[in-house]
Amino acid sequence: MDKIVSLCKRRGFLFQSSEIYGGVQGFWDYGPLGVELKRNLKDAWWSDMISAHNELIVPANAPSEFEMVGLDCTIIMHPQVWKCSGHYDLFHDHMVDCRESKKRYRFDQVRGRWCSHGEKKIFVTTMAEAELELDEVRRRAMKFFKLRPKNADELSVGNESLTLDQIQERDQVLAPDAKSLDTLTEPREFNLMFKTTLGALGGEEDAAFLRPETAQGIFVNFKNVVDTSRVKIPFGIGQVGKSFRNEITPRNFTFRSREFEQMEIEFFCHPEQSKQWYQYWRDRRMNWYTSMGLSSESLIMREHHQEELAHYSIGTADIEYAFPFLPAGEYGELEGIAHRGDFDLRSHMEGKLDPNSPEGQPMQVELNENGKPKHKGSGKDLSYRDPVTNERFVPHVIEPSAGADRAALAFICEAYSEDKVADDKGDLQERTVMKLNPRLAPIKAAIFPLVKKDGMPEIAKEMYSELKKHMNVYYDDKGAVGKRYRRQDEVGTPYCITVDTDTLSDNTVTIRDRDSLEQVRVKIDDLVGELNQRLR
Ligand code: ATP
C-alpha cells in the first residue's frame, strides 16, 4: 500500500487537500492523472449503466426490458428531505473522546488486545494499520509495564484482536494515544451530516445539510421524471455526484473520506417483481467490476444477515474488495445493493416512517407529543399508475450505490504490479506497471520519436496533434526509449507509439502493448481506427 500511495503522489494521481497548509484530514485532490482516471471511471459507469443502455432489448438475465435515465441534483436540499429520509434522526456513528490526548475515535474502530504482565491485565489499543497492529500493541504494552527488551517474554499478548465494543472492562483500556488507563468517555452518538446555514440571518431554522448521499435527490424527483419523460416502470434513474459525511476517523487513503463521489441508481419496479430485479442488479454490478478489471478472487458479495436488514428490505448485499491496507481475509465495501421496498417514496409522501417497527407490523408514522406526525412528508402523491393495467401502486426500489473514489482506489490497487522486462540490450529490468483497463487509463497512448533528428519529432508531433482530437495522448522525446516506456507503464498507459527509421520510408509506426509487450507496425493513417478499436 505504501508503494501505491507514494506512486499516486509522485505521478500526480492524488494529493492531500490543502497540503501546503498541512492538509485537512479526510479530503483529497485528484491530480492531472487522477482526474482523468476518475473521469474515465465515472464515464464508463454512466455509459454502461445509463446512456448506452438499450431499452428495446431484454438484457441477459433481466426479468424484462427497462429504461434508464439520469439526473443531476443539488447538494443542498430542503432540510425536510433529511428528516423524512431518516438521516436527521438516525445517521449516526458512535464516538469516544480521550480525556488525556483530547483525540476522538470511532467506537467500533478502536482495536486492541489483552496484555498481561504478572497479575495485571490491560487492554492495549492502537489505531495502527492492520499489519502493524500486533507490533504496536506489544510496543505500547512494554512501555506501559516499563519492560526492557530483555524481559519481553514476561509479557503475554492475546491472540485475538478485538474492538472496544467487544469488551466490557472499559476501565482497563489503554486508549490509542494515552499513557494511563481509563481515559475514554462513554460512546456518544454523532450525526455524520455536515451542517451549513442558508442566507444571512443564520438562525437554527436556516440550518441546512450537505447531502450524505445522492439518492434522496432521485426520490424527491421521482414524480418530475415520470411526468416529464416517457419512462414507464420498470426504470432506473442514475446520478453521479459529491456526497459529504463528517466521518469521525477518515482513513485508509481515499477509502473513507469526508467528501467523496457516489454513482447511484434508484431502480423503480413493481413490488411483485422486486425480488427478481434485486437479483439482477446484484449480479450485474458484480460483473461490471470484473469486466472492468477487478479479479474475482479479490471480490466478494457479502449478503447482509437477516438481523442487519431493515424490516422493509428483502435483502442487501455489499460488493467488497480485498484492499491491500486490510488484513488478509478482510474486505472493504465498494458498493451496496439494497432492496429498499417502498420505504423512501412512502416516507417522502407521508412523513418519516418508523424504520424500527417490528417485521410484519404496519409501518408507523412517528408522532410528536401533540399526536401530529413528527416529520411531515411532502403530502404529494408519489405513487405510480400503470398506463396499461391502470393499477396504482408505490413502486419498490432497488438501489445499487457505488463510490467513485473507492472504485478508483480499488482499480489502482488491482492494477499495480511489478515485473521484469528485457531492456534494449536484453538485460532484465524491474518495472512498475499499472495494468489498468484501457478504458480507465488516464493516458491512452504515448507518442515517441525514436531520436530527436531526421524529421522524426516532426512526424511524431503531427501524429500527436491528430490523435489529441480523439483521446488523451502524451508526447515524450526525453531520454532513452526504454525509460520512456517505463514512465508510461507506471501510470498505466496501454499503448506506446514510436516513430522510427522505417516510418520515414513506409509511413508506419510501432504500437507497443503495455501488458504483452508485443509490438506491431501500423500505418499512420490507420492509427485512430486501430487505437479506438483496442480501447473499446
Ligand atoms: P461504510 O460502511 O464503509 O461507511 P456505507 O455502508 O455507509 O459505507 P453507503 O451508505 O452504502 O456506505 O454508501 C454507498 C457507497 O458510497 C459505499 O459503498 C462507498 O463506496 C461510498 N462511500 C460511503 N461512505 C464513503 C466515504 N466516507 N468515503 C468514500 N466513499 C464512501
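^ adenosine-5'-triphosphate complex. Residues 320 and 333 are 4 Å apart (CA to CA). The two ends are 30 Å apart (CA to CA).
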